[in-house]
Amino acid sequence: MKAYLILEDGTVFTGTSIGSEREVISEIVFNTSMTGYLEVLTDPSYAGQAVVMTYPLIGNYGICHKDMESAKPWPDGYIVRELSRIPSNFRSEDTIQNFLKEHDIPGICGIDTRALTKILREKGTMNGMITTKEYTDFSEPIKRMKEYTVTGVVLKTTTKETYVLPGNGKKVALLDYGAKRNIARSLNQRGCEVTVYPADTPAEKVLAGKPDGIMLSNGPGDPKENTAIIREVKKLYESDVPIFAICLGHQLMALANGMDTHKLKYGHRGGNHPVKDLETGRVYISSQNHGYVVDTDNLDPTVAVPAFVNVNDSTNEGLKYVGKNIFTVQYHPEACPGPLDSGYLFDRFLKMMEVND
User: Fold this and answer.
1) How far apart are CA 245 and CA 230, in angstroms?
2) What is the pLDDT of residues 279-288, one digit of tens each?
3) Where does the Carbamoyl-phosphate synthase small subunit N-terminal domain start and stop, copy by copy (predicted)?
4) Does residue 122 share a domain with residue 214?
5) 257 is in an annotated binding site
6) 267 labeled binding residue
7) For the segment 273-312, what is each residue's pLDDT rounded down to a tens digit?
């Protein structure tokens, strides 16, 4: 069936419908990963967005449910150049086509994703519509697109109940703002007992569990929207418990301490972003998925100092808090998908908890 991708600037791409045939309006973002499409589809940070995969062939190794980063896919839509018709992999259990249909996610294939990505890079991230309806007048759908905003997605993606991953080592409280599974898994593999809390859990309840350390997870949407959560993060900051924060958690900790965030023109999404450790000068290739960054222009050096910087555009990629056992990063040390270069940060977090004994 013929499908259309309409952007809010009036650009129209014509392709073939994949997955659900329902119409959807969403924020259109692109991901530059060459592999890991299932992990991208099941990353809760994509809630409220439709994802363009820049790699031209997607789906060639099928779907393996063990690789999912959450219980379900989260993007509103999926946009690819070419979808593999026959996946070939001994672990494959399904095709992307069936996976999208099963979860009612609309998609489009057969369009020029390189041209689409160039538009998003030059004009910035914009809203769009995936539809099988042939519009003759675009004024009405474009009006609806311009009115669309991503809201309420943290509480939509977080766990609804507290649960525990048993371990014999340090006790870690993980605040789930839309957490990928590999964050808890990375800690659990290092022996930690991980208690995963819903995003709106009061700080008092988290601290009452007497954790050795606290992790603030990744998640979707505009960090400034989460005013109640930011107040609880401030309380966690004021405790003496070591804290490690990733992505949205990094932004929430910054906002809790008087810093500001802003939206990037087109964000960082992919498994090939270089970040520089300002202490050692070493550069790591990182996995990233975010549209907002922390402003460091007016950073109070008595509160925090930059720890990592993006080599491509010099935006902040991490902070170390002065006088506190707290460090935060904008990128994803748990990867999935992406390189494992930054997995050592979990080991650094474990050492912080040991020093705090």
Assistant:
1) 13
2) 999 999 999 9
3) 1-131
4) no
5) no
6) no
7) 999 999 999 999 999 999 999 999 989 999 999 999 999 9
Does 334 reside within a domain? yes
Are residues 92 and 166 located together in one domain of the fold? no
Q: Is 45 known as a binding-site position?
A: yes
The one-letter amino acid at 83: L
Asked whether residue 357 is assigned to any structural domain, the reply reads no
Confidence at residue 355, expressed as pLDDT on a 0 to 100 scale: 75
CATH number at residue 255: 3.40.50.880
The answer as to whether 244 is a domain residue is: yes
Find the domain containing 173 and state its range.
Answer: 152-352
pLDDT band at 85 (very low <50, low <70, confident <90, very high): confident
The domain tally of the chain equals: 2
- DSSP labels for 89-146? -TT--B-HHHHHHHTT-EEEESS-HHHHHHHHHHH-SEEEEEESS--S--HHHHHHHH
When computed from its CA atoms, the radius of gyration of the chain, rounded to whole angstroms, is 20
Q: The pTM is what?
A: 0.96
For residues 197 and 103, membership in a common domain is answered with no
Is 217 part of any known ligand binding site? no
Domain CATH number, residue 64: 3.50.30.20
Coil, helix or strand for 205? helix
The two structure tokens encoding residue 189: 């593999």
Q: Give the pLDDT score at 45.
A: 98
Give me the helices (H) in the chain, please. 37-41, 96-102, 113-123, 139-147, 153-157, 181-188, 203-208, 227-238, 248-256, 344-355
Give pLDDT tens digits for 258-273.
Answer: 999 999 999 999 999 9
Token representation of residue 336:
């999935």
Residues 158, 80 share a domain: no
Our measurement of the distance from residue 220's CA atom to the centroid of its chain's CA atoms, rounded to an integer in Å, reads 6
217-253 pLDDT tens trace: 999 999 999 999 999 999 999 999 999 999 999 999 9
Confidence (pLDDT) at 357: 64
Catalytic residues: 247, 332, 334
Q: What does the pLDDT read at residue 165? A: 97
Query: In the 8-state DSSP scheme, what is residue 152?
Result: S
Residue 258 annotated as lining a ligand binding site = no
Examine the pLDDT at 159 and tell me if it is beyond 90: yes
